[in-house]
Design brief:
Blueprint lengths: L4 E6 L4 E10 L1 H13 L9 E11 L3 H4 L1 H8 L1 H4 L3 E5 L7 H8 L5 E5 L2 H10 L3
């Protein structure tokens, strides 16, 4: 089975990019974070995260959506005080980042449709 995600850390910006492709389930999201945490793919100097779902689509039932912010809350040592930009373009997927944002706790998430806007938002949080 091929992985549905790829990590890339931008050392200049301090942002970890996580790009998804294909149909994405809650298990895909949580296991990819578990993989990143377990294998030290999140550098200490990470200031924020950009989750790019433009080449993916969510395969989540309504109650599963809340599992995403629950995962972030359960892993506050990683996400505490960080900004999480969620990029989607597909109209049926755009609701997911809005529902995640409603549950933010000690981190901030926000939906975006472009990388540039997402980067600017994360960097603004550092001022």
């Amino acid at each position: 089975m091929t992985e549905k995600f790829k990590y890339e850390f931008d050392t200049k910006l301090g942002i970890l990019f996580k790009r998804y492709h294909g149909e994405i389930t809650l298990k895909d999201i949580t296991s990819s974070w578990d993989n990143a945490i377990k294998n030290d793919k999140i550098p200490q100097k990470t200031i924020g995260f950009i989750l790019d779902y433009r080449k993916a689509s969510f395969k989540l039932v309504n109650n599963e959506i809340l599992g995403i912010p629950q995962y972030y809350r359960n892993n506050l040592p990683i996400f505490n005080g960080k900004r999480i930009a969620i990029i989607t373009e597909n109209p049926k997927d755009i609701i997911v980042p809005y529902l995640v944002k409603e549950e933010d706790f000690n981190y901030s998430s926000s939906p975006f449709s472009t990388i540039k806007a997402a980067i600017n938002w994360i960097l603004e949080g550092q001022k």
